[in-house]
Amino acid sequence: MASYIRVVKVVETMKIIIQTKNLSKAYGKTQVLKNIDMTIEHGEFTAIMGPSGSGKTTLMNTLSTIDTFNGGDVWIEGRSLLDINKKDLREFRQKRMGFIFQDYNLLDTLTVKENILLPLALQKTPVIEMEQRLARLIEALNIEGILHQYPNEISGGQKQRTAAARAIITNPAIVFADEPTGALDSRSATQLLEQVQLLNKTFKTTVLMITHDPYAASYCQRVIFLRDGKIVNELFKGAQTEKEFFDRILTIQSVIGGEGR
Amino acid sequence: MSIIDLSWRNMKRNFRLYTIYFISMLVGVIIYFTFSGLMFNKDVVAAIQNKENYEMSIFIASIIVFLFIVFFILYANSFFMKQRKKEFGMYLLYGMKERQIVAMVFFETLFLSVISVSSGILIGGLLSKFFGRVLMNLMRYNDDISFAFPLEAVVSTVLLFALLNGIITIQSYFSIRRVQLVELFHAKGKKDRPFTFSMPLAILSILLIVGSYYTITLAGHTDIWKNYFKETLIATTVALIVGTYLFFSQFSGWVLQKMSQTKNYFNGNKMLWISSLRFSIRGNTVNFTFNSLISAVVIFSVGFIAVDYAVKGDVVRKEFPNHIAFSTQEDEKQKEIEGIMNDSHPIISHERITGIQMEKIQDRKMFWSHPEYYTEELYLFPESQLNAIVDLRKVGDKVDLVGEEAIILTRGIDDPKKYKSPQPEITVLEDHTFRIVQKIRYPLLSMPTSPGGDTDLQPTVIIVSDEAFTYLKEESIVSSYDIYEIEDPKTSNDVSREIYDIVMKTDGAYYSAFVDIYSMDMESSSLVLFSVAFFAVIALFALGSVIYFKQLREATEEQEHYAILRQMGVGHKEMKKIIWKKLLFVFLPPLIIGLVHSWFLLYYTVILLIKDLPSLTTIIFSVMGLYVLTYLIFYLSSTSIYYKIINEKNTR
After folding, report:
1. CA angle A159, A162, A167 (to 5 degrees)
2. What is the ipTM of this complex?
């Protein structure tokens, strides 16, 4: 419990979670990311949008340390990725980052509860603490009834909520969500987005979401538009409703997306 | 791009998968060639005394070896085909004909066969020196065996593997025909939830196994096995089989289920391998049951045969203690014979014994439990000559008889016995009565032999006191025998043959030589032991490989799981740990069950009966050691390949 409180304090004092400067990445001669400068602050719910090939997945992979970059630098919680060795990177990823994927990536031999607790188990967290952390998420994500079921017995929406719970149970500095609503029907998608929004508000979880869906993006506080490896626009929701924000996103997207393809 | 070209590319691309398959084939060729190489090895054949017998047994053995190899390689191939289902499906999707795919598989198998047969023959030829040496050692010959590649063995290996190639192609054809295109577009079989296991059945499995062990331990000291042999045997066997089956289907699952309910379950990577094992129990039960039971039987038979081999030399030494013994010859011939012996196997000591030969007596059953194994005519020898032979052999106890006392000499099948008063009486030479004080197991004159290994009835011998013998000698026919101890009697085959020819020129002459029986028994039991040990190695290897291939298939199915874990930041070390633990729980239970089963079978049936034999434990433990080693190799190899498979990029 003590360590948990400490982590929360650390997160709160460190306002900037991710900062990039001149971030560039090339596969051979193809430049995928070009001089990206961006900052993600603690508690932000950000979406990255862009047509396919715009480099949004590469950007996320680079930020989440799964992939390397060729130019510039990335700081996560103030630490430059260039200074961290491979083993520490992995540990960093395990402890400070959470992931939600389009195809859920749940282990089908584990129950919902086991899937959620897996990251903590691997970090050898005491069982009492595991249960406490789980208890706080159960209500927010509405997963009480399915805790002892296996992934193949539950719906896609339930699977994605399980994946969301697994991603934030470690109290990560940031949660990366890669097209989380991609495989869901619209009702389940709305439900999930509302819940992620709720988690973001209640637990101040920083979320970076990749999506091509303007509807999903409209739940975020901020949308970054990417095209040909460059940031081409940025929108803030501010006091707008989801509907108003959605319309603005659509407008911007039609401008960028129209000439991008 | 031609089909041959495509096959060649496949092999280069799928190198690891082909390597496993290639090694299976290579092992098969090596084993088979070693075996058939021995059959035609000139050095080995030259050393063997009973050539027909040898060729026949090796021939039968090599057929059994080949059948094992067929089983083993077909299994490897079916694994291989299943792994490539997706690839075949893609070819079908792109419009390739089934026949073309079969042709492609045929060429691939042909490439593999050509490489494995040629390198297998090379390795097998080099190994033949070693295995020939082992066989010669077992037979206790000192002949040197050179490297050999007998043409007959090469031809038969090539032919049989060409045949195998055909069988593989047919098998491949059937498995390609079974490929459903739909499978390409559907996810693999879904796992819903693990089966629940019942505690009563889990406990029952332990009870059944312990119960059948207990019945086996009773073998020595209760009547249940004597009075109800068939019933007890069937009940024990059934209990052992059912118990083993339930052990793998219920007990192991129940233990895992219990483990998943402890608090500790959420600590570290435990839940990953435990849950994965719980899902795989159903698919492994039959496999594990079959494996541990057959392994136990295999080990038991090797132990049994090894014991037979180990005691054989001692049995022959006890039953045929005279290195060379024959009816006394004229002086000149006697000198000639001694000359023959001294040429190659110098005489250590020599004794001439003289006895009275008599007609048959009534009612031999009173004294001999199996009179049909003894000659009807009777030989009387004085105690002093028996004592002289005890001195000569340095084996046995001297006797001291007075007056009418007599001792009956028996062989292995008759138990020794001391008679208390009233001692039975035996009347010989019409009116001379002796009191039998005891029966001892001591062949003064062993069974007559011939260099081919044939034997005749054991001479019936009674030992009487010196004074009685001197008195009787006056009025009877006497005959004398010369008994020799020579150096290195085990290799005196040629000497025996020469002397036999000289002695047998006289009708009704007696001849007996230790080496005649020893070399024949040694050769046949060595061959049996050698072949059975070979079968055992292949059988254990083939059985282990079934578990091995199954694990590799599971690895392919679990690729996705490990990909998820990798994304979650689980490191290579941690993944290796998970695999090590998971596979340990896969390989260890069948191994332990197989070992304990075979131990109980061996200990109470064989070891307890012949426990005073020092070399016995060594033999049994080396068989078990080999079994453990096989599993260890499979365990180590499968963990490393498992790890490689899960790290492969999923191309789906």
Report:
1. 125
2. 0.79
Give percent helix, percent strand, percent coil of chain B, each to the nearest 5: 70, 10, 20
Instruction: Inform me whether the pLDDT recorded for B239 exceeds 90.
Output: yes
Closest Cβ–Cβ partner in A91, A121, A152 for B271: A121
Strand order in the sheet with A174-178: A97-100, A174-178, A207-211, A45-49, A222-227, A230-236
Burial A101-116 (b: 16+ CB within 10 A, else e): bbebbbbbbbbbbbbb
How many CB atoms are closer than 10 A to CB B468? 20
B-facing residues of A in 106-125 (CB < 8 A) are 106-110, 114, 117-122, 124
pLDDT in tens, B439-468: 888 888 889 998 877 888 888 888 999 988
Instruction: With CA atoms as reference, report the closest residue to B47 among B177, B131, B160, B140.
Output: B140
pLDDT tier at B401, thresholds 50, 70, 90: confident
Q: Closest partner residue to A114 among B268, B271, B574, by Cβ? A: B271
Q: How far apart are CA A92 and CA A6, in angstroms?
A: 16
Task: Tell me the chain B residues in contact with residue A99 when contact means C-beta distances shorter than 8 Å.
Answer: 567-568
- Dihedral of alpha carbons B340, B343, B348, B349, sign: positive
* Paired strand residues for B605: none
Asked if residues B132 and B44 have their Cβ atoms less than 8 Å apart, the reply is: yes
Cα separation, B369 vs B376, whole angstroms: 14
Locus of tokens 């997945």: A57
Q: What are phi and psi of A39, to 5 degrees?
A: -135, 130
Q: Residue B90 in 3-state DSSP?
A: helix
Q: How far apart, in whole angstroms, are the C-alpha atoms of residue A196 and residue A141? A: 8
Count of Cβ atoms closer than 10 Å to residue A234 Cβ? 12
From the list A121, A150, A153, the residue facing B266 with the nearest CB is A121
CA–CA min distance B249, chain A (Å): 18
**B449/B316 Cα distance (integer angstroms):** 12
Domain A16-260, CATH homologous superfamily name and number: P-loop containing nucleotide triphosphate hydrolases (3.40.50.300)
Residue-averaged pLDDT of chain B: 84
Give the pLDDT confidence of B340-371 residue by residue, as tens digits: 999 989 999 999 999 988 877 767 777 787 88
**Residue A57 Cα, gap to closest chain B Cα (Å):** 14
What mean pLDDT is reported for chain A? Answer: 85
Count CB neighbours of B70 within 10 A: 16
- Give the residue numbers in B contacting A (CB under 8 Å), as ranges: 190-194, 263, 266-272, 275-276, 278-279, 561, 563-565, 567-571, 574
Of A101-110, B79-88, B406-415, the range with the highest mean pLDDT is: A101-110
For residue B159, how many other CB atoms are within 10 A of its CB?
10
Q: Report the distance separating Cα B410 and Cα B224, nearest Å.
A: 32
Report the pLDDT averaged over residues A120-147.
Answer: 88
Tell me what pLDDT residue B608 has. 66
Average confidence (pLDDT) over A53-70: 87
Round to whole Å and give the CA distance between B118 and B29: 9
Q: Are the C-beta atoms of B646 and B555 separated by less than 8 Å?
A: yes
Residue A187 pLDDT > 70:
yes
pLDDT band at B615 (very low <50, low <70, confident <90, very high): low
From residue B390, give the alpha-carbon distance in Å to each of B36, B228, B367, B399, B413. Answer: 46, 44, 23, 10, 21
Q: Is the predicted pLDDT of residue B225 greater than 80, yes or no?
A: no
Domain boundaries, chain A: 16-260
Q: What CA–CA distance (Å, rounded) separates B325 from B484?
A: 6
C-alpha to C-alpha distances, B538 to A233, B408, B437, B535, nearest whole angstrom: 70, 50, 55, 5
The predicted-structure confidence for A29-44, as pLDDT tens digits, reads as follows 888 899 999 999 999 9
Q: Where are the alpha helices (DSSP H) in A142-185?
A: 156-168
